From TrEMBL:
Organism: Flavisphingopyxis soli
Pfam families named among the record's database cross-references: Epimerase
UniProt name for this protein: NAD(P)-dependent oxidoreductase
Superkingdom classification of source: Bacteria
UniProt-listed SUPFAM superfamilies: NAD(P)-binding Rossmann-fold domains
InterPro entries, per database record: Epimerase_deHydtase, Lipid_A_modif_metabolic_enz, NAD(P)-bd_dom_sf
Segments forming domain NAD-dependent epimerase/dehydratase: 4-227
Length: 288
């Protein structure tokens, strides 16, 4: 594979992917603004994914298309519903159609582990996800995007990656683990359900980026959970942070509310993409 497109290269996983993209002859980055640390094999196309953008300025022939873009307003429903939909659904469809016309052999689309909702078990990719408004607007748009992407499996290899709580250097402080770091450091209480709180298997952005690269080589189309090697509770993560910053976490517990999980079964990821190697305990310093 020589020529690829990355939408969402300025985000967490995208920036880590860009740092690993030296193996490709041409990397075409779709971005609204400037991109820092742009490798020598990359060129930026100024495109706003929240608009009805034109793909005529993109290469006429492409090998792979990667869509990692996420609306910065993903939490702001209903006020930013149209912007969320434009990025997660409309822009994705435009790029799927472009990839087909440009002869792409592979298309990788980032979804979210949040599409499963809350559970007590590690979720497998083949679980049936019921159509329900209770899932939330953002994950609902991700499900729509997944369905659209798999409709193009007749024209190219399509990989949908359900990413679970990516973390790493350069992450926005509003995201889960940096936010926990700031709460512990500043002595703000952390609310948890049950004894230990939500359980997750967060994935380091470099492992997620390597999963994207591996997905550009799959034969056929599939959905993959992309998670980390360890399942951790919010209490465990906060206590880990407390040791690192020298502060004792403050918890507010909802003892009468059972703790649940957002954990992805990563057996398929380990078998067909890669085994995630990075543990939160070893990389927590990147977010301190």
């Amino acid at each position: 594979m020589k020529r690829i497109i990355i939408a969402g290269a300025t985000g967490l996983v995208g920036s880590h992917l860009l740092a690993l993209s030296g193996q490709y002859e041409e990397v075409h980055v779709l971005a609204r603004g400037d991109v820092v640390d742009l490798p020598g094999n990359a060129v930026v196309h100024k495109i706003d994914l929240t608009t009805e953008f034109d793909t005529s300025g993109l290469p006429g022939q492409i090998d792979g298309v990667i869509v990692l873009s996420q609306s910065p307003d993903f939490r702001d429903f209903p006020d930013k519903a149209l912007a969320i939909f434009d990025v997660n659904v409309r822009a994705l469809l435009i790029l799927l159609d472009y990839a087909r016309r440009a002869g792409a052999t592979h298309f990788v689309s980032a979804s979210s582990g949040g599409v499963y909702g809350l559970s007590n078990d590690a979720m497998r990719e083949d679980v049936v996800i019921p159509a329900s408004g209770s899932l939330g607007f953002y994950p609902s748009t991700k499900i729509i995007g997944e369905i659209l992407a798999h409709n193009y499996a007749a024209f190219m290899n399509v990989a949908v990656l359900r990413i679970f709580f990516a973390y790493g250097s350069g992450q926005k402080r509003s995201m889960l683990i940096p936010r926990l770091v700031d709460n512990v450091r500043e002595g703000r209480p952390i609310t948890i359900d049950g004894e230990d709180g939500l359980r997750i298997n967060p994935v380091h952005a470099t492992d997620a980026a390597k999963a994207v690269i591996a997905a550009l080589s799959i034969d056929g189309s599939a959905t993959f959970n992309v998670g980390g090697p360890d399942v951790l509770s919010l209490r465990e993560i906060a206590e880990m942070i407390g040791q690192a910053v020298g502060r004792t976490p403050v918890f507010e517990t909802n003892a009468d509310k059972p703790a649940v999980s957002v954990v992805g079964d990563i057996a398929r990821m380990k078998q067909e993409l890669l085994k995630p190697a990075r543990k939160l305990a070893d990389h927590l310093d990147e977010m301190l």
